[in-house]
Task: structure prediction
Amino acid sequence: MLASLLEATIDREIVFLRALGATQAVQSPKPGAWSPKQELGHLLDSAVNNHLRFVNAALAGAYTGPGYAQNEWVDLHGYQSMPWLELIDLWYDHNRLLVQLVRRIPADRLSSLCTIGGDAPVTLSALIGDYIVHMQHHIDHLLARVNVTRYPQ
Result:
C-alpha cells in the first residue's frame, strides 16, 4: 500500500513539475525562501536520507541516526544552478527506486522502530508515510497550489 501511494504520488506530480517553466523554477516566492528548484532539491535530499533510513531499518529491524542540515544540503548541492528538467528527472528516478525498495520491505519489518535525531521513535511504516506527506506538502508549496497539504514543522 505505501509503495503504491508513493508511486501514485510521483507519477501524478511529475506532470505538474514538468509543466512549471524553467524561469518560474528559479524564482523565490519571497526573500530568503527556497525557489522551486531549491525546494525540489530539498526533496531529492530527503529521498537520499530516507533511502538509507528505510534500508537500514528493514535490514536491522531498527534504525537510529541523525537528522540533516537541510539548508546546508540545498546550498552545497547548488540546486539553483541545475537545469530544471534534470533536477526533476533525478527526483523522479530516485523515488522510482524507493517505490521498489518499499515494495520489497518484509511486512514484519514495517513495525521496526526508527529514531531520527532527537525525535521520538516511530515505526518504519509511519516514517514512510511521513516521507510521502512531506513530499506532497513541498510539491504543493513549490507549485503554488491554493491548498497545500499540511505537514508538521
Notes: Residues 2-142 form a domain with the Four Helix Bundle (Hemerythrin (Met), subunit A) fold (CATH 1.20.120.450). DSSP finds six helices and three strands in the chain.
